């Protein structure tokens, strides 16, 4: 998969899972005629195929690749994005629909989709030649940032971003070109299989509409972490996004650092909360709720960092212990370089 500036990122490419450290060994038998062939395994029956998080294809959306049945993209009005089917199923043709209207192919399995001129949402569907929906892409057409006046967008207080003269690494701290409007009609839309738009809005107490800025790699990283935990026998039914996007105004109001990744749309503070008490669960099974539970999540990130397929999602990892007003949690982002900190 291609991600950003030539970095590789892998979601769930089908057929690529391998057993590690297992050798194929031939064993001699005195009399092969007496061997009984094992019975074939029973077929796996999926009753609700559409509920699976992975699609039967991977989809290149601009400069990222998503393996998920539902994903998202964030574009400006009139912006054209290339969409391409990666790892198609054999002997299968695909078509792209935008709000049930067919989109013309640029070439086989590839489309150039142009966003409408007005901010809002469009539902894109990739369908196979039998009409089955392989993937849904929720496209959010952003309100351009140049419509912010006096630090506000439709009365929503965003505040000023750091001046360019204050920024040392300009490639890492890019001011948003637009903002996604969040309202009662779209806040339940999925950004990925397990995360919705409403989970990432800034917590400043205002009415709708609200505005957020997000980057798609964050969704990939959250989904990969969630899967990694489950694969390591740490069940995750509910991963809470305690803090997603923060406006510069809100970020300053809570006393956070000026260059927080939260204001640049690629950070989330998260914890596992399967029992619904809005506190980190006892992930290490010691009967207590401590920073060690956050360490369990951090360990999964560290394991993912060792894999070459994860390069495009490398970023910050902060581990936080519990306080009187909240439980333990971890911070993750996709800034492109490793950063580590721990606050008991």
UniProtKB/TrEMBL annotation:
Gene3D superfamilies (UniProt xref): 3.30.1380.10
Annotated SUPFAM superfamilies: Hedgehog/DD-peptidase
Region of interest: Disordered: 21-40
Start and end residues of each Peptidase M15A C-terminal domain: 195-275
InterPro entries: Peptidase_M15A_C, Zn_M74/Hedgehog-like
Annotated signal peptide: none
Origin: domain of life: Bacteria
Protein name: Peptidase M15A C-terminal domain-containing protein
């Amino acid at each position: 998969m291609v991600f950003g500036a030539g970095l590789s990122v892998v979601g769930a490419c089908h057929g690529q899972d391998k057993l590690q450290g297992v050798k194929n060994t031939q064993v001699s038998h005195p009399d092969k005629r007496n061997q009984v062939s094992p019975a074939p395994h029973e077929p796996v029956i999926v009753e609700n195929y559409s509920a699976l998080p992975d699609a039967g294809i991977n989809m290149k959306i601009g400069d990222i690749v998503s393996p998920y049945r539902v994903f998202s993209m964030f574009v400006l009005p009139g912006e054209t994005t290339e969409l391409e089917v990666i790892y198609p199923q054999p002997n299968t043709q695909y078509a792209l629909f935008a709000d049930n209207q067919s989109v013309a192919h640029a070439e086989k399995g590839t489309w150039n989709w142009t966003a409408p001129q007005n901010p809002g949402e469009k539902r894109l569907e990739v369908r196979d030649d039998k009409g089955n929906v392989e993937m849904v892409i929720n496209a959010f057409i952003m309100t351009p940032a140049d419509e912010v006046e006096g630090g506000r967008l439709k009365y929503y207080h965003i505040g000023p971003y750091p001046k360019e003269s204050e920024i040392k690494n300009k490639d890492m701290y890019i001011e948003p070109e637009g903002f996604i409007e969040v309202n009662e009609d779209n806040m339940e839309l999925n950004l990925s299989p397990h995360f919705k738009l409403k989970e990432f809005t800034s917590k400043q107490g205002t009415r709708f509409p609200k505005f957020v800025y997000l980057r798609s790699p964050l969704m990939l990283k959250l989904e990969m972490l969630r899967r990694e935990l489950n694969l390591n026998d740490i069940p995750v039914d509910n991963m809470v996004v305690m803090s997603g996007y923060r406006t510069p105004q809100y970020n300053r109001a809570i006393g956070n650092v000026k260059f927080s990744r939260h204001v640049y749309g690629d950070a989330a503070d998260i914890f596992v909360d399967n029992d619904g008490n809005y506190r980190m669960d006892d992930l290490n099974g010691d009967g207590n709720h401590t920073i060690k539970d956050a360490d369990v999540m951090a360990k999964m990130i560290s394991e993912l960092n060792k894999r070459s397929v994860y390069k495009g999602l490398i970023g910050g990892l902060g581990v936080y212990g519990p306080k009187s007003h909240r439980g333990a949690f971890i911070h993750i982002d996709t800034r492109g370089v490793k950063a580590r900190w721990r606050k008991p």
